Amino acid sequence: MKRITFLIVFCFLGIAIIKAQENQLQIIAGLKLNNIYKPPSEGNRFLMGYSIGLSYNKYLNKQMFLSSGLFLDEKGSGTEIDIYTETMDFKVRLFYLDLPIKYNYLITIGNQKLLIGLGPYIGCGLWGKISTEFMGQIDTYNIKWGNNGGDYDGTPNYKRLDFGFAGSVSYQVKRISLGLNYQIGVVDMVPEGLGGGERNNTFGFCLGYLILE
Q1: Which of 4, 43, 54, 68 has the most neighbouring CB atoms within 10 Å?
Q2: Residue in 78, 123, 130, 69 with CA at minimum distance from that of residue 98
Q3: Which structural domain range is residue 179 located in?
Q4: d(CA 87, CA 148)
């Protein structure tokens, strides 16, 4: 409960900082390849997801700026498990409200810009589903958010609070930008029970548009 309260305060603080500044407001949407970082990762595979949100950029000087915002991010992973001669397809789809805070470096060439960003993010799990397909039968379960993980009915709890680091490289011409981004979590999402060592790991392509500058 304390972590959720901290997350809410952190989000409102981020929004207050955004409102206090006047610089650039950008809408960003993209597609992501989602997986988990879990050694060993045999059988894991990427799942396609999406991301959409608003980012506010506050320039510190001509080459450095801070960016923050709120994003609806889909994360998760897929796993194929061999059971005798059959294969079970196991998918986890998690939806988070993410608040990134990045330091960005700007390289300008004429009217074109190259932007490189790096910084932490904090996320709050909103909802999610686990689906299994085995021998033609598909079963779906809602995610049980918790702090410990470890239900033994096939639907382990996932920690609601996520934290990690994000990096991005984007190319901007006038108001439009194209970019690549990477996000790695440091929180063990399922520390007990069926899981252990599972951290969010995403790589994505994004399209941005400046709606205010």
Answers
A1: 68
A2: 123
A3: 2-212
A4: 29
Nearest to 168, CA basis, from 46, 90, 71, 43 = 71
Question: What's the number of domains the chain is made of?
Answer: 1
CATH number at residue 198: 2.40.160.20
pTM over 0.85? The answer is: no
For 31-80, the DSSP string reads EEEEEEE-SS-TTEE-EEEEEEEEEEEEESSSSEEEEEEEEEEEEEEEEE
Model confidence over 88-143: pLDDT tens digits? 788 889 999 999 999 999 999 888 999 999 999 999 999 999 888 877 788 888 88
- C-alpha to C-alpha distance for 184 and 167, rounded to whole angstroms: 9
